[in-house]
Structure formats: C-alpha cells, structure tokens
Write a structure and sequence with these properties.
432 residues; alpha/beta; 2 domains
Length: 432
C-alpha cells in the first residue's frame, strides 16, 4: 500500500506545483521556497536546526497558525531550551507563521508526504517530538516518525461529519496509520468518537477543547479605525468576513437592497482568498458600487464598499462592525470560524453549511447569539431586523461573548498534557 500511496501522491505533487507557484507569486513569496516542499533546504536554514532540541509543529494554514499562537508563546516560555520548527502548507499560512518567527521559532513550508522526502527532512530536522494541528493526517510522516521512535500526535483535533464519511471509505487502511500516533487531543467528544471509530485507540484520545477560543481576548478598537471608517458615529457597518467566491454576488445584492433603507450603511467585504480579489472587484462594479481597497489608506472614504486585501486584519475589523456575516456558509465549504466576531461582541449571521464548526455555531444559535439564514432573502430580512434594533444587536453580541468565555482553557489543558511527553524527550533522537 505504501508504494501505491507514494505513487499517487507524487502525481498529485507534480500537478500541484504550477498552482503552488502561482500562489507563491500572489503572496510575494520567493519561488525558491518550492524546494522546501521536496525537503531541500538552504544551508542557513539547516544550520538553525543543528544541535537544537526541536519540537516540530505543523499548522496547515492561517486558522491553524492563529489557533496555535497562544500555545506557542506558552511553550517557549515554559521550555526555554527548546526550539520550535513551525511549518505551514499554504503561502498565507506561512506568512501568518512568519509573524511568530524568532531565534527560537523557525518557519518553513512542510515537505510533501512522500516517504523519501519525509525521511530526508527528518534527517535534517532531528525533531524530538512532532505535533500536528487539527486533522493533518499524513500517512508517511506518521509512519516514518513512529518507525524512528519520535512521538507524534494531534492537538486541537477535529473531524467534520462530511470528512468522517469520506475517511470511512478507507478506514481499513487509515486505522493502521492512526494507531501509530502517540496521542490525539480533540476539540469535542464527537471528534473523539469519530477518531475512535476510524481506528484510533480509545486510551490515546483526550478531549481538551478548542484552542481557537483561547486565541482571542477582550475586543479592542482597531488601531486603523479612523482610516477605515470616516465619521464612524454616522455610519452603520456590515462586515462580511472570510467570504468565498459565489457568496459575494448575493452579499452585494442584499447590500444594494439594504441601502434603500439605510443610506449610511457601509459594507466591509473580506474575501477568504485574496487571490480572487479581481473577481470580487468585478462583482462590486456590476452591482454599481464604488469601492476602495484596505491597502489604499486614506483614499475615497465615501465609497460604500471597502475590500480587504491584506491578511491578518479581519479580527480587528470585526470590532468596527454593527453586524457580521461569516462566510463559507452559503456554499459547501463548511463555514469559517465565527469565534473572532463573537469575541468582539457582535451579532452573527451565517448560512446553513457550517459543518467545519458545527458545535460552535450550535452553541451560538442556542444562546441567541447568531441567526442561521437559509437564503438570500432571509439574509436580507435578518440584517434589516438587526440594523433597525440596536438593543437586539447588543443583546446578541453579549451572548456571543459569553459563549466564547465559557469555552476557554483548551490551550492550557493541551500544554499540560504535552508536558509529560516533552519532559521525556531530553536525550538526542538519532534519525537514520
């Protein structure tokens, strides 16, 4: 089975390179970084790994890096003799990881999951422990680490119902991989049940909660608020965050209708993938709106649509909102993370497809902190209701904040569990 997986993954890797190079270019990253995906690193980077006690943390993209931020800070503080090797798979994820880079945090692209590539990289890195964020189930990485006696496990683990059904199709094989993991720390009891049914031994599964709740503290006013919203006290602001292509058209149509009732309404639109910004600009123009880009600081304050073309600012922008729509939920993407907006005490709206964060959305809906809308028309009606009723907005926002506070503590529980593994890994690990 291993040779078949290697063959299939090699084909996938070769076909993915052109798209990855395009994304590198869009992110203004050096194309030379593509070699890191093949386990080939510069002498400078290799030197940063040499002779160090290393924990390798893999966080695939932006959301996973942000969820790990507090854990990373606590780890570096509690274990001053350790170095963190922090990998990502996407250019946006690596850029977010770079904000954490230091002498003790080395950032790079994760290598392709090919047995020879993984083995070469483990020879370079010599990690004492490997931690995978959420659901990064890479068979060769898990198998090679296990073969060389390197503890490897999952933190903040989750499996959506949709993914669980897909994994069940190969559970006869996946179970043998999961049994090689040293531990699996999951977000919820349901996630633990899914891992168990797929073959993960029950005595290795621990429910520690969702670390994403710990990343966000009390809402703060965005430091750039005056450059984003002019005459803030005279405007109502709708933030549509992490939207996917095919959602923006519906959002703009709803915005157009709302402007008939609320002439002072401003839309802040933050696409999930900035590389699709040109399409979004086309949609804005087709709907007859002027716009400005976030990066164009100070220009055309009167434009009713502000397009966000920078990573890492959405959480602060939520603090400017009167109402928030969380994207990825009108299309079958499973919804994006609502925790940032909830931390800012904002009333939330979302579509029906939220399987990626189903338990979080369920809590928000049950506590009257969010509205689930089934259609473009219902989105319009609920937004109109919220914009007309400031007290309803405040009450829902307060409930959203309370939900987040009740779910904190996962980061501390995760580090507490991992400490027993970390403290056992004091001797050098030789990788053949």
């Amino acid at each position: 089975m291993k040779w078949l997986y290697d063959f299939c993954f090699l084909i996938f890797a070769l076909f993915s390179i052109p798209k990855f190079l395009v994304r590198l270019n869009q992110a203004h990253d050096s194309k030379e970084l593509i070699w890191q995906r093949w386990g080939i690193f510069s002498k400078t980077l290799k030197g940063r790994f040499s002779g160090r006690r290393i924990l390798w943390l893999h966080a695939v993209s932006v959301g996973e890096v942000m969820a790990a931020r507090q854990w990373i800070q606590n780890f570096l503080k509690d274990y001053p003799t350790w170095t963190l090797a922090l990998s990502a798979t996407t250019p946006t994820g690596r850029q977010m990881a770079e904000t954490l880079a230091s002498d003790r945090v080395v950032v790079f692209y994760a290598p392709f999951d090919l047995s020879n590539v993984v083995r070469r990289f483990l020879n370079i890195l010599q990690p004492k422990m490997i931690v995978l964020m959420e659901t990064e189930l890479w068979p060769n990485l898990i198998s090679e680490a296990s073969a060389f006696g390197i503890p490897i496990g999952i933190v903040n683990g989750r499996i959506s119902p949709r993914s669980f059904k897909q994994y069940q199709l190969v559970s006869w094989w996946l179970g043998s991989i999961l049994r090689k993991l040293s531990f699996c720390l999951v977000q919820s009891e349901r996630d633990g049940e899914y891992f168990s049914k797929l073959g993960m031994p029950q005595d290795k599964i621990f429910c520690t909660g969702n670390m994403k709740f710990d990343h966000f503290g009390a809402p703060e006013k965005a430091p750039f608020s005056t450059s984003v919203i002019s005459e803030r006290e005279k405007k109502l602001v709708w933030v549509a965050g992490s939207t996917n292509w095919n959602e923006e058209e519906a959002i703009l149509r709803v915005f157009s209708r709302l402007r008939n009732n609320f002439q002072n309404l401003q839309l802040i639109l933050a696409p999930r993938h900035p590389e699709h910004l040109s399409k979004v600009i086309g949609a804005v123009r087709r709907n007859g709106f002027q716009y400005r880009l976030f990066s164009e600081n100070g220009s055309n304050h009167q434009a009713p649509v502000l397009l966000i073309d920078r990573m890492g600012v959405l959480a602060s922008l939520y603090s400017l909102a009167d109402v928030v729509f969380v994207g990825g939920s009108f299309v079958r993407r499973g919804g994006q993370n609502p925790i940032e907006a909830a931390c800012c005490r904002k009333p939330l709206l979302h579509g029906p497809n939220v399987f990626n964060f189903s338990e979080v959305y369920q809590l928000l809906n049950q506590n009257h902190a969010a509205f689930q809308v089934q259609s473009e028309e219902e989105l319009f009606q609920k937004l109109k209701l919220l914009l007309e009723q400031p007290k309803l907005r405040a009450d829902m926002g307060s409930q959203a904040w309370s939900v987040v506070q009740s779910m904190k503590g996962a980061t501390a529980r995760t580090l507490d569990y991992l400490s027993r593994w970390i403290e056992l890994r004091e001797q050098p690990v030789a990788v053949a």
